[in-house]
Amino acid sequence: MTGLCIRAPEKALAGLEGRPNVEAFSLNHHEKVLAVADDVYKVELVPPDIAPYREGNTGIPYVTTFDSGKAGPHVMVNAVTHGNELCGAIAVDFLFKNKVRPTRGKLTLSFLNIAAYHAFDKAKPNASRFVDEDINRVWDVATLEGSRNTVETKRAREFRPAVDRADYLLDIHSMQHATAPLMMAGMLDKSVALAHRVGIPELIVRDEGHAAGRRMRDYGGFGDPHSPKTALLIECGQHWETSSQDVALATTLSFLTVLDVLDPEFAKRHKVEKSPRQRVVTVTEAVTIQTDKFTFAGPYTGLEMLGKKGTLIGYDGDKQVLTPYDDCILIMPSRRLTRGTTAVRLGRYTG
After folding, report:
1. Which domains are present in the chain?
2. Can you give the pTM of this predicted structure?
3. Phi and psi angles of residue 116, each rounded to the nearest 5 degrees, phi first
């Protein structure tokens, strides 16, 4: 990987040009369910064997910390928060195989939802996002210290001490649809500032997260404006497209470089070219599904800009879901349309 330039596709960013013609789709929403099957996106990536990293050196399976012996931040790069998101595993495997070590402070390399990852099946690639529940919705203290016992809550409790020790976190993800990469920075200025320093990808999203539960990137000091701890969540593109691994690798190397923990000589050999510009989309609301029958009015895949306030997005049961303002951008419309989850996030350009 040399001289990577990760840029979002022009069409994906233009918004208006890629906007679906909503009127072209049936409004009989109980009959017109716009679902995407497993075979829509080809699995181009090969999940790496992460078994060699099982033991680690922290007492937590699949968590390894390298200590430079010099003063500096504790930086964490995490993969497979969701078991079918392969690009993060490829990026972390790359760091291991290339013997990347911090030049100052500490570097932790980790794999979170290992049970889901090991269940990945190329024939059914959507089936292994999680085992019992989304592990990226359990990072509030009440859940972590509560009585709920699922594969994911058990793993989160086991994993929590590693997250507590980190000053900076990069959590590597990918998306259901083939849209431009997104840096999910949360709402805090400190995270947006770090996203600008990383310089990849072009789009930075400020958002509050999900009603269904707290994300790891918002846990503890990461979500506290008074704490120096800072986290980023990178959505690298469609789950299994080759380009997602390029985004994951480039973002990871830039993240380590701006935190001054990556060997400059290694960085020179694996040069990353940052986006020529970055834009910020601020999410104003997340559409949380209230019924058992949510359908979109069009085949939205993300980053469509709907020009007029009141444009139909879809139906939650019999209730219309409309854009709340002009030039509303759809962020990560979901294919998992179940009660209590986020159907889509709505935002606008703010920077």
Report:
1. 8-38+283-349 (no CATH), 41-277 (3.40.630.10)
2. 0.87
3. -70, -40
